[in-house]
Amino acid sequence: MQETAPPNKILIAVDGSEQSLSAIKYAANLFPTDRTHFVLFSVQTQLFDLFSDLGAYPHFKRSMTGLKRWTTEQKSEICETLDNIVAHFRSKGFPEEAISTMTPTKMLGVAQDIVKESYNGYEAIIVGRTGTSRFKDWVLKSTAMKLVAKVKHIPIIVVGGHPDAKNMLVAFNGSHEAMKGVVYAGSLVGRSDHRMQLYSMINAEKKFWEGSSPVYIPADFNGPIDTGSFELGQQLGEARQRLVDAGLAPEQISAKISVVDRERGYRIVEEARGNDYGSVVISRRELITFIDEYFIGRVSDKVLKLADELALWII
């Protein structure tokens, strides 16, 4: 008798913000109900404990009473939020045992505590692009930005706006890192009705088709992709097979190759926006190459800003 594969364990950072709740809705529409386990992770700051010593001074007793009432209300609010999230997942068909909640007290810092938890057998992390304080996120770095810089062992999915979860654009340049993106996308959402496009970009010197069109769409993606001597054809075929093996039907998978000289990061986002792809899967190598070209640095707010209304999978 063949053993059933364990469910994919997904860590979702919850802070009660509008964008955090949007990430919840995205996850509920994205992942299969029969093989996904969500852990709702909400780090709690014990402000009352920080000021508890002040209660010994008569002058501060009245203030302490108000602070204690406020912290109690905050705990009640996050518990209610988590209960509502669990109810939402159940309404989408997820069984009760597929959802767990964790509300640990902040130890190292919100982002650091999430990173520490992420090493406990998770397949991916989901986080909203902005938190409860947009001003703080703008002046400093949002939790999402900190996680992008620190989480490299599993995919991190940064959700902006209210993206459609059904259609995914997988940026594919034939590299090992890009193939990892294909494998992760297939393993997490395979055997579903999602539509995936493998999107590749080449420079003009590698153009292999006749005519002036800057775009090549394989006429028969079920068979070998004729790209002349260009090696991307074989790799696209392998990527397609990986998705089929993960459970997607051939008609759910498409491929597109564009001639692009510069602005590759911008072109990926525009391709997604223009064709109703709510999710973009991109490897860190491609992301950093884009940054090197334009911002001379590592992952920054400027890059995520391009995908402010999309769910960006960073592999």
TrEMBL record:
A Pfam family matched by this chain, by name?
A: Usp
Residue ranges of the UspA domain?
Answer: 9-159
Enumerate the SUPFAM superfamilies for this protein.
Answer: Adenine nucleotide alpha hydrolases-like
Q: State the similarity comment.
A: Belongs to the universal stress protein A family.
Name this polypeptide is given: UspA domain-containing protein
